[in-house]
Every structure is written in C-alpha cells, then in structure tokens.
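Example for tutorial group B:
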C-alpha cells in the first residue's frame, strides 16, 4: 500500500511540474481526469 502512495505522489508531482501548475490546480485537474476516465460518474472516483 505504501508503494501505491509513493507512485501516485510522484506522478502527481511530475504532472504538476510538467504543466507549471500549483498544487490545488493540479489536484483538481487530476480529479477531473479520473472522473472522465470513470465514465463521467464522480461516485466511482470519490467513494466514501
């Protein structure tokens, strides 16, 4: 489980740096990409 977290955080930082974005903007954009990938259903991405 730790490896998944480390890989995800590295991908996030690479995405943030490659697109010259701030933390919140990059986080929001990645969330939107996940929603689109999940068939435009936010319930599949943000399970609580």
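The residue assignment follows.
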């Amino acid at each position: 489980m730790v490896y998944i977290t480390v890989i995800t955080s590295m991908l996030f930082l690479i995405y943030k740096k490659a697109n010259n974005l701030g933390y919140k903007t990059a986080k929001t954009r990645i969330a939107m990409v996940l929603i689109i990938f999940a068939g435009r259903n936010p319930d599949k991405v943000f399970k609580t």
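The chain has a mean pLDDT of 86. Compare this with the pattern of hydrophobic and polar residues in the output above.
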